[in-house]
Design goal:
This protein is an alpha+beta fold and 203 residues long.
Length: 203
Amino acid sequence: MNGKKISFSLYFLEKICPLSNEFKSFYQQQVKHALYKKGSILNESGTLCDKLYFIKKGMIRGFHNIEDNEITTWLSTDNELVTSITGFFKHIPASENMQAIEDTYVEYLSYDDFQTALSKFPEMVRIFNILLIEYYIHAENRTLLSRIPSAKGRFDHFVSNGNTFLLNRAPHKFLANMLSMRPETFSRILKANEVDFANEMES
């Protein structure tokens, strides 16, 4: 590794599948690091998203601008891989925006380096396939979430899928927006569930 400190994201990838020394060496040479301050735009709609990000610490949201409204579609935090899925993998201008909503430290691989890794290393193909499956699972879940008629039902579904920790971390205006409800409605439902969340944390 030429004495370079091992990238945090490499540990994450190695949990997905075994990695050859050749891949590790390539990855260490190509991975980059960046710090995005709170409010910074990582990628803007209509521009090419050519980076696959690993969030070491922080939070990023994806959102669309539609009819003069911002529509938050996802929130990702520590130890998650994020990018504009269509923009990055099809290498076309992204339809969504990506914004840091906390000071966010990331490691990232460029599109060209990602393609090189796919062509040279079988483990990168396996990682890509596993991540693609995970993406479709999340996409299916988001589709279901958007079809639940009641605000309470959408909130309950969101929480039941392991997102309770976001309630104390993510700005509630973004959570309410993502769940297609007014901030006042979100606050009311959240307050009504506070006792249940307290019991859950104690158990």
